[in-house]
Design goal:
Blueprint lengths: L22 E6 L18 E5 L35 E5 L9 H7 L4 E6 L1 H17 L5 E6 L2 E6 L1 E5 L33 E5 L9 H7 L4 E6 L1 H17 L6 E5 L2 E6 L4 E7 L5 E5 L2 E5 L14 E4 L3 H4 L9 E4 L2 E3 L4 H19 L6 E5 L38 H11 L5 E4 L2 H5 L33 H14 L10
Parallel strand pairs: 1-4, 9-12, 9-15, 14-16, 15-18, 18-19
Antiparallel strand pairs: 1-6, 2-3, 5-6, 7-8, 10-11, 11-12, 13-14, 16-17
This protein binds 2-acetamido-2-deoxy-beta-D-glucopyranose (8 copies).
One 2-acetamido-2-deoxy-beta-D-glucopyranose binds next to loops.
Length: about 500
C-alpha cells in the first residue's frame, strides 16, 4: 500500500532535489489489506496469468538488482526452472499498463512512499526498488536500514560537462567583486565545469528566452542575506549573458536593487534582509524581534517571492548584528540560535499564511546554503583545512558531514503551512561543492583593489553553484503547469 508521509500535496512541499530524490521506506509492523482498482470499467484484480508473448518478462533480472535479499533471489539460489518468470497478469477486459520506471519516478518525484507491514511488504518493496533501479541503472542511490526501517533513495551528483559554465563572468560587467573569482585571479577553472545531474531525471537546459517569456510582465523579488544577492546576481548574469544586446537597467536604492529587462517588462528585485523578522534600534540597543515582521509590508504586490535567511542567525561577537532578542514581552541577551531561527521562521510562515494570495503570488524558499570552513566535514586530508585550495566537488551523492539542522527546521516549518511554498532544496547539492567558494579570491573590488583580507567559504563564485540553483528555479517554473498532477 502506498502512502505519502509528511506531505500535504505535491506542490506545497515540492523540494527540488526531488526529481532526484525518491525515498521508498519499508516498516515491518503489521499485516496490510488489499488495494482498490483505480480504473473504472475494468477490475484489475480479476484476470488470469498468461505467458508474455512479447518476451518482456521478467521485468528485471534479479542478479542485476544489487540489494535483493537472498530469501527472494530464487535464481541465484539455484532454482533450475525459469518458466515462472515469464507470466504476465492479464485482467479481463483490459491490459495492465506496462511498468515504466522513468514515468513512475517522474510522477512521484519528491515523494516518500512507505510500505508498512510484514515480510510480504518487504517482498513488494524490494520488487519496486528493483524495478525502479533497473530503469535507472546508472543512478546513485542510498539504502539504509535503521532497526525495522529500510530506506532506498535516489540521489544526484555533479558531473563534468564541457558546455559549462553558463557565462564568462567578464561579460557580466555589473558583477560584485566578491563573486568574481576568475576576475580576482583564481587560477583553477575546473570548478566552472560541473553540472548537477539528478539521477531519476535530467535538469532542463536553462533557456534564457523561455525564462523571460515565462516571467514576462512579472516582478520577481529575492529577499534575504548575501546568499540571496548571490543567487539574484547569478540570474541577472545568466540572462544578460544569454542576450548581451538586450536593454537593461540596474538601480540601487538603499537595500533594494532592481534589475529590469525593459523589453520583456521583467523586474528582478533584490531586497537585502538578513533575518526577515524585524531588527529594531531601541533605547537598550539593537533588538531582534522574533515575532514581529513589519518588514513584510515591502513584500506585497509581487508575482514571485524567493526568501532566504540563515547565516546571520549564527554570527557572534563583532559580526552579531543585534544586542538583544525579543520574543513576546521577554528580552533575552542570547538564546540557542536554532531555536531563535525556528521562531523567526514561524513568524515568517504566519506572514505568508495571512498575506499571500497563491493565485497572484508564488512563494519560494531558497534553501539553506552550506559553508565549507571545516575540512573534517568532508574528510579532507588535513582536518584543519577549509575550502581554500579545493578544486573539485565531492563525488557521489553523500556529504560525509551529514545534513544540516537548519534545513530540517525549514522543511518542518514549510511542511506545516497551508499556503503553497516551494522549497529550493539546494543544501545537499551545494554541500558537495567544497570547490565552489571564492576562498581568497572573493575579496577584491571590481577594479582589482584588495578591500578585505580573508577567506570566503560561505558565498559562491559566479559563474558557479548559484547558476545551478537558478537552473532548478527555472525547472520549477517549467513544471508550474503540471504542479497539480504532482499530488499523490
Ligand atoms: C541474469 O543475468 C545473468 C548475468 O548477466 C545471466 O547469467 C542469467 O542467465 C540471467 N538470468 C535470466 C533469468 O535471464
Ligand atoms: C545513506 O543515508 C543515510 C541517512 O541519510 C546516511 O547516514 C548514510 O551515510 C548514507 N549511506 C551511504 C552509503 O552513504
Ligand atoms: C573569459 O573571457 C576572457 C576575455 O575574453 C578570457 O580571457 C578568459 O579566459 C575567459 N575565461 C574563461 C573561464 O573562459
Ligand atoms: C509591465 O508589467 C506591469 C505588471 O507587472 C504592467 O502593469 C505594465 O503595464 C507593463 N508595462 C508594459 C510596458 O508592458
Ligand atoms: C534598446 O533601447 C533602445 C532605445 O530605447 C532601442 O532603440 C533598441 O531597439 C533597444 N534594443 C533592443 C535589443 O530592444
Ligand atoms: C575518511 O578517510 C579515511 C582515511 O582516508 C577513510 O578510511 C574513511 O573511510 C573516510 N571516511 C569517509 C566518510 O569518507
Ligand atoms: C505545526 O502545526 C501544528 C498544528 O497547527 C502545531 O501544533 C505545530 O507546533 C506546528 N509545528 C511547527 C514546527 O510549527
Ligand atoms: C577602486 O574602487 C574603489 C571604490 O570602489 C576606489 O576607492 C578606488 O580608488 C578604486 N581604485 C582604482 C585604482 O581605481
Amino acid at each position: 500500500m502506498m502512502r505519502a508521509i509528511g506531505l500535504r500535496s505535491g506542490w506545497t512541499f515540492f523540494t527540488l532535489l526531488i526529481c532526484s530524490l525518491i525515498s521508498l521506506l519499508v516498516l515491518l509492523l503489521r499485516h496490510t489489506t488489499a488495494a482498490q482498482s483505480h480504473k473504472k470499467n475494468c477490475n484489475l484484480f480479476r484476470g488470469s496469468w498468461i505467458e508474455d508473448e512479447t518476451n518482456n518478462y521478467p521485468l528485471y533480472n534479479s542478479t542485476h538488482c544489487p540489494f535483493i535479499e537472498h530469501e527472494f533471489n530464487c535464481q541465484r539460489n539455484g532454482r533450475p526452472d525459469k518458466d515462472y518468470l515469464k507470466y504476465r497478469w492479464k485482467p479481463h477486459g483490459c491490459s495492465l499498463t506496462r511498468f515504466d520506471g522513468g514515468a513512475f519516478l517522474k510522477k512521484f518525484k519528491g515523494k516518500s512512499i512507505m510500505f508498512v507491514g510484514d515480510s510480504l511488504s518487504r517482498n513488494q518493496w524490494l520488487s519496486l526498488v528493483c524495478l525502479l533501479y533497473t530503469s535507472q541503472p546508472k543512478a546513485n542511490y542510498n539504502t539504509t536500514r535503521v532497526g525495522d526501517v529500510s530506506i532506498f533513495t535516489f540521489l544526484g551528483n555533479w558531473i563534468y560537462d564541457n558546455s559549462y559554465p553558463f557565462y564568462n563572468s567578464s561579460i557580466c560587467s555589473f558583477i560584485e567583486g566578491q563573486f568574481n573569482c576568475q576576475g580576482n585571479g583564481r587560477p583553477d577553472k575546473l570548478y566552472l565545469k560541473y553540472k548537477w545531474k539528478p539521477n531519476a531525471c535530467e535538469l532542463p537546459k536553462f533557456e534564457g528566452l523561455e525564462f523571460l517569456k515565462r516571467v514576462k510582465g512579472k516582478k520577481i523579488m529575492f529577499i534575504g542575506d548575501s546568499l540571496s544577492l548571490n543567487q539574484w546576481q547569478s540570474l541577472t548574469c545568466m540572462l544578460h549573458a544569454a542576450f548581451p544586446k538586450l536593454n537593461y537597467t540596474l538601480q540601487r536604492k538603499g537595500d533594494v536593487s532592481n534589475f529590469v529587462f525593459q523589453d520583456h517588462n521583467v523586474s528582478l528585485i533584490l531586497s537585502r534582509n538578513a533575518f526577515l523578522v524585524d531588527l529594531v534600534k531601541e533605547k537598550i540597543g539593537r533588538v531582534l524581534k522574533l515575532d514581529s515582521i513589519q518588514n513584510g509590508d515591502a513584500w506585497k504586490g509581487f508575482d514571485m517571492l524567493i526568501f532566504n535567511t540563515w547565516h546571520w542567525w549564527l554570527h557572534k561577537g563583532s559580526q552579531q548584528s543585534w544586542d538583544f532578542i525579543q520574543k513576546g514581552d521577554q528580552i533575552y541577551k542570547d538564546m540557542d540560535r536554532l531555536v531563535a531561527f525556528k521562531e523567526g521562521l514561524k513568524t515568517w510562515s504566519n506572514w505568508v499564511e495571512s498575506n499571500i494570495d497563491p493565485t497572484k503570488t508564488r512563494v519560494f524558499f531558497q534553501g539553506i546554503s552550506p559553508t565549507h570552513y571545516s575540512g573534517k566535514e568532508w574528510n579532507a586530508s588535513k582536518p584543519s583545512s577549509n575550502c581554500n585550495g579545493e578544486t573539485q566537488p565531492i563525488s557521489g551523492s553523500v556529504y560525509p558531514g551529514g545534513p544540516m539542522a537548519a534545513t530540517t527546521i525549514v522543511k518542518e516549518i514549510i511542511g506545516n503551512m497551508s499556503k503553497p511554498v516551494t522549497l529550493l532544496d539546494i543544501t545537499l547539492l551545494s554541500q558537495l561543492r567544497k570547490d565552489g567558494h571564492p576562498s581568497i579570491y572573493g575579496m577584491n573590488n571590481n577594479n582589482g583593489t584588495k578591500i578585505k583580507k580573508g577567506n570566503d567559504c560561505s558565498h559562491w563564485c559566479l559563474a558557479g553553484v548559484p547558476d545551478t540553483w537558478n537552473q532548478l528555479f527555472y525547472a520549477l517554473l517549467l513544471d508550474q503547469q503540471t504542479k497539480s498532477s504532482n499530488t499523490i
